[in-house]
Amino acid sequence: MKMTFRWFGPKDSIPLSYIKQIPNMSGVVTAVYDMPVGEIWPIETLEKLKAQCHQNGLEMEVIESIPVHEDIKLGKPSRDVLIDNYCQNIINCAQVGVKCVCYNFMPVFDWLRTNMHHTNADGSNSLSYSQEDFDNLDPNNLHLPGWDESYSSDELQSLLNEYQNISHEQLFDNLIYFLKKIIPVCEKYDVNMAIHPDDPPWDVFGLPRIVSSEQDFDKLFKAIPSTRNGLTFCTGSLGAGRNNDLIHMVDKYAKQKRIHFFHARNIKYVGDSNSFVESGHNDKCGSLDLYKIIEVLVENDFQGYVRPDHGRNIWGEDNKPGYGLYDRALGASYINGLFEAIERNRK
User: At what angle do helices 168-189 and 79-95 cross, to 10 degrees?
Assistant: First the structure.
């Protein structure tokens, strides 16, 4: 496997030189963050990003993400031009050495939490989702942590209205339409597409979610058989769906060579509802069996990219929620240790 770290470009408060100091760190996962969704990323910008990474001894082989425009998800007439732009972005990324593109097909919200600064018993803070708090939200006057800066009230309501008549089947058909145009480009330029599961993996505000379960993945891979059409196996996102058997799923899709990217994080279930808190990566901190999940990855000779996913803010750090340095570095070290121990035991 190749250990990587999410880096939000030159404006990230965490410098590349710090990321390089994390043991076994091969590269960063990044993107072009200052271009409007749907436009073509200049290759000069990508080359500059790559040069910054290489100057710090880090690769730039994974992009997370090239956002999918809402018009593509909605199946609007404008989608063909937008998909052509997306194809060009894949080509431009491939020309600077990118091997994997993580993306999602979630309407409006590509993640959802009810608290960005949940205080844990140890004094750290992390992201959390409370079903009770969610149920108390007013869909006609939404104010969501982390999203109030992204959409005005009018923009958000307009988008939600556009999706009122989009069913699960229609959204899935729009995903397949998109992939039928994208995957041949990936085949030609040696790029893997790794769809990220819904986060959380259930419908929200009436918006359909179509990448939440084993059945959803099976349907997707049957429709587009090419192994370029793969997934980002996110333990936290899939794990929030308590009916998902992560050990079985990782075994199944690793055998099929469908897992191109692996997001490792832990969550702690709260009560009997969908509620959860994002915890430290260590198995004892949460409800997921990361040891067994990674053991199954190793048994299937996983050679893809791994990154420690959301971490807590610890030791007084006040960084972007989920993306502080310290706890993600601890997570990377824990994941490195699991891989090393399991690999050596197998030998």
Answer: 30
Q: How far apart are CA 95 and CA 99, in angstroms?
A: 10
Average pLDDT (312-317) is 95
Query: What backbone phi and psi angles, to 5 degrees, belong to 281?
Result: -70, -30
Q: Which of 39-53, 153-167, 205-219, 330-344 has the lowest mean pLDDT?
A: 153-167
Contact yes or no for 308/279 (Cβ under 8 A)? no
Average pLDDT of the residues in 23-38: 96
CA-closest candidate to residue 22, choices 257, 270, 327: 327
Residue 96 has pLDDT above 70, yes or no: yes
Task: Provide the phi-psi class of 11: left if phi over 0, else alpha when psi is between -120 and 50, else beta.
Answer: alpha
Count of residues in the chain? 347
182 within 8 A of 169, measured Cβ to Cβ: no
| CA separation for the pair 85, 30 (Å, rounded) | 19
pLDDT at residue number 316 = 92
Q: Give the strands of the sheet with 115-119, arranged side by side.
A: 115-119, 125-129, 276-278, 267-269
CA atoms within a 13 Å half-sphere pointing along the CA-CB vector of 227: 10
Distance in angstroms (rounded) separating the CA atoms of residues 233 and 213:
11
Taking only the tens place, the pLDDT of each residue in 143-167 is 778 776 677 778 888 888 899 989 9
Cis amide linkage into residue 65, ω under 30° from 0:
yes
Distance of CA 185 to CAs 44, 55, 93, 189, Å? Answer: 21, 30, 12, 6
**51 CB-near residues (< 8 Å, 6+ apart):** none
Could you give all domains of the chain from N- to C-terminal order, each with its CATH number?
Answer: 2-346 (3.20.20.150)
pTM score, two decimals?
0.95
